[in-house]
Amino acid sequence: MPRHDLSGLMTRRGALRGLTAIAVGTVTGAGVYGYFHERRALGVTRATLPVSGLPRALDGLRVGLLTDLHRSRVVTQEMAVVAVDRLMAERPDLILLGGDYVTFSDPRFIEAAADALAPLDAPHGVFAVLGNHDDDRDVPAALVKRGIAVLKDARTRLAIRGEAIELAGLRFWTRRVDEITRVLRGATATIVLLAHDPRRLREAAALDVPLVLSGHTHGGQIVLPGLGAPAARRFPVVAGTARQDNTTIFVSRGVGTVYLPIRLNCPPEVAVLTLQTLGAL
Description:
The chain is of the alpha/beta class. Helices cover about 25% and strands about 25% of the residues.
């Protein structure tokens, strides 16, 4: 019988086993890094946002944005407190909270999340909206008890530096243009829209809202080299600043995690946003 040379086959098998081992090691190492380090590596993002129609007296107004705390078994009280401390150290003029204070409306963590947020304080107030992980009763009640105003499809008018600004907040499930129009009806000053979901950019642009602040995406949470953030492809903006028509949006990567307690190439953040009159130098 003829003898077959198996050396090439064995070499290829060895190479495949080696490549598989490298791939598994890389994924495992990235997961370990994302769990033990990056999801805790919270930073402060500072950005300047051009706002159409913003009165010049409000140019330079600093807005603190904290969103997607996701207090849970894996997002600890210590992580929440660090986020609050980092934001308070920036001394913003106004603080806005973008929703998802707990994960899956877990009642075990609602009071703890509210306790962590209680020290937040700013000269022009602290305002919040609800995310898709927040219930409509216990979470807002806990926040209100700590002095945080919750805007559930509601608007409030703030007087700052002798000028007015309209702050509107949407529930996550409020999506249609006619629903948002009802919230904004009667507004006569520059509108800042706080909407957990950045997909509200489309409706905001249609309604000529100058500024939208959002979270929800976690910046993708896991961002792969060359592929981006697979989990966030359905969103018009995954993280950072963008403009559509006359509307500026900022989307925060947020503080916590959901589904997987890992972040890769997408560290958590609190944001300090300096509003700038469009056209100002």
